[in-house]
Specification:
- Belongs to the binding-protein-dependent transport system permease family. HisMQ subfamily.
- Keywords: Amino-acid transport, Cell membrane, Membrane, Transmembrane, Transmembrane helix, Transport.
- This protein is elongated.
- The protein is built from 9 helices and no strands.
- It is an all-alpha fold.
- α4 crosses α5.
């Protein structure tokens, strides 16, 4: 227990760092995922191609490699930002590809007649997607989107290798101070469990309220 009590501030900083990374990267992933899903089903061929390339590249690129590309590659093009911002970009962009596919699968569950009826009333593609299709698709993708955000929270551990304050990185400091590494990882695991259970609880509430009855 002294591993936690003696280093509560260290664990607290790491825990808050992971929460911050998860929140900001999740928001970015949801926005980009929605945008790319819109591109994937757009009537414009160039948009569909861009969305397909985005998903194919990011889903098939190891996240660690993406971190290297963002944190070490972008500064070479003159884009210099705090490492935490780069970590959010890497996590958000990577997860957006999976969010996109989850949303696209939900869109495909909506009968085509719904979109055709909306267009027959004079609605644009954007109006049809945002007002008719997505509200129905959202109900069937709550669970997979939640699973992707839980995976994002766990993937944030990679950021610690790039000088970003997060929960897993606290083991380095405590190991140097001579604390028991096993108990250090036990408390770290408990911290991740709290975060993932919180995300799961939020999406369970959303699913009970708006999810499709099976």
């Amino acid at each position: 227990m002294n591993v936690l009590t003696d280093n509560f501030s260290t664990f607290g900083d790491g825990f808050l760092g992971t929460v911050e990374l998860t929140v900001y990267a999740s928001l970015l992933a949801l926005v980009l995922g929605f945008l790319m899903a819109s591109f994937r089903v757009a009537p414009v061929g160039s948009f569909r191609a861009f969305g397909a390339v985005w998903v194919a590249v990011l889903r098939n690129t190891p996240l660690t490699l993406l971190f290297f590309a963002v944190l070490l590659g972008l500064p070479r093009f003159g884009l210099v930002l705090p490492f935490k911002v780069f970590a959010v970009l890497a996590l958000g962009c990577y997860t957006s590809a999976f969010i996109c596919e989850a949303l696209r699968s939900g869109i495909n569950t909506v009968p085509k007649g719904q979109g055709e009826a909306a267009r027959s009333l004079g609605m644009t593609f954007g109006q049809t997607l945002s007002m008719v299709v997505l509200p129905q698709a959202f109900r069937s993708v709550i669970a997979p989107v939640g699973s992707n955000l839980i995976a994002l929270a766990k993937n944030s551990a990679i950021a610690g290798a790039f000088s970003v304050t997060e929960l897993l990185g606290t083991y380095k400091t405590l190991n140097e101070l001579g604390y028991n590494i096993i108990w250090t990882f036990v408390w770290i695991a408990l911290g991740y469990l709290i975060i993932t259970l919180a995300i799961s609880a939020v999406f369970n509430i959303l699913e009970k309220r708006w999810g499709v009855a099976r």
